[in-house]
Amino acid sequence: MEKAFYKSKDFNIESFKIETFQTISDLSLKFAINSIAMTKHKAGFVNIIGNPNVGKSTLMNAFVGERLSIITSKAQTTRHRILGIVNGDDFQVLLSDTPGIIKPAYQLQESMMDFVKSAFEDADILLYLVELGEKELKDEAFFNKITNAKIPVLLLINKIDKGNEELLSEALKLWQEKVPNAEIFAISALQNFGVSEVFNRIIELLPESPPFYPKDQLTDKPERFFVNEAIREKILMHYKKEIPYSVEIDTEEFFEDENIIRIRSVIMVERETQKGIIIGHKGSALKRVGVEARKDLEKFFGKQIHLELYVKVNKDWRSNERQLRRFGYNN
Ligand code: GDP
Ligand code: MG
């Protein structure tokens, strides 16, 4: 029986070390398949929508920041942009915000509609965030989508710390009429009031599903982990004999900007001769690894990638326990 590695605190890379995979998305599929044995687990996509400035990002931070076992990931899959992953023993919530929404007015509608379209296709639960005092239903088509949604809609009236009871009861009445299919919550994302109630309701509503992502408990691990695996895959494909097994990848830098992710990874080898083989004639072999890995990673993260690779001789990495632990080969 394969170990349910996603559940263990010491995330165990070894369990699929010898498998090769065609693409990164196959890898995430593997995680899903490996987890099917677990029945009661819940997981799903939760999309936060709403006008600019109503507090979507604040809410996101409140969810992600307040939970016990948390990772945040900015990974992008073809399905979704995931900005926050909140993990528990038996749940995984994949939260996504709507960055495209904060755009000039003429673009707003368009990107909002695009997002709403995908949100309705992909989401398991919709969080529609409004702020206290907000009344206008600016976009009718958008509203029709929400009121006719086939998935649970939680309408969150945010910033209640700014108002009084009278304002709040007016708002409750207004939104009950406008969006009768929604469950309504009054919250203050900023002061963390009502947020855990919303979160608990999300957990209740989540469909039964294995986790979509490994439950790595180290905050910055997932992105780097995928980077390492993408590079290692190319090395397995292009080098012979002992080379792939003498190699370890360490992504030293993973820096995400708005438009580009800058990555620096080191390929560790055990001997000077291996270094030469990895690099190849005038660097051609290493270049091929870099170009191919970069292409895969651009697909995976949905962003332009700047990938810097270099090779280092590190005699000890396979025998030194501390090093091994660092690379995740501990049991
Ligand atoms: P977004 O554009 O929807 O992502 O909104 P942000 O999360 O960036 O928040 C916009 C502004 O509203 C920021 O100045 C937040 O501090 C503020 N804000 C968010 N939530 C609350 C809240 O519950 N109460 C109050 N008073 N301000 C809030
Ligand atoms: Mg925001």
SSE blueprint and pairings:
Layout: H1 24-35, E1 42-50, H2 56-66, E2 70-71, E3 84-88, E4 91-96, H3 105-122, E5 125-131, H4 140-147, E6 153-158, H5 165-178, E7 182-186, H6 195-205, H7 221-238, E8 248-256, E9 260-269, H8 272-279, H9 284-301, E10 304-313, H10 321-326
Parallel strand pairs: 1-4, 1-5, 5-6, 6-7, 9-10
Antiparallel strand pairs: 2-3, 3-4, 8-9
The structure holds guanosine-5'-diphosphate and magnesium ion (MG).
What can you tell me about this protein's structure?
By secondary structure, this protein is α/β, with parallel strands linked by helices. Helix content is 37%, strand content 21%. The strands form two sheets. It has a seven-stranded mixed β-sheet with strand order 2-3-4-1-5-6-7, sandwiched between helices. It has a three-stranded mixed β-sheet with strand order 8-9-10. A hairpin with a 2-residue loop joins strand 3 and strand 4. Helix 7 (221-238) packs across helix 9 (284-301). The radius of gyration is 23 Å and the shape is elongated. Mean pLDDT is 74; it is low at 1-38, 66-82, 99-109, 217-221 and 327-331. The structure holds guanosine-5'-diphosphate and magnesium ion. Guanosine-5'-diphosphate binds next to helix 2.
Which kinds of small molecule does this entry bind, naming each only once?
guanosine-5'-diphosphate, magnesium ion
Helix content: 25-40%
Protein structure class: alpha/beta
Count of discrete alpha- or pi-helical segments spanning 4 or more residues: 10
- Indicate the proportion of strand residues: 15-25%
Distance between the termini: 16 Å
User: What can be said about the biggest beta sheet?
Assistant: 7 strands, mixed
Q: Biggest sheet, strands in spatial order? A: 2-3-4-1-5-6-7
Q: How would you state the average pLDDT, rounded?
A: 74
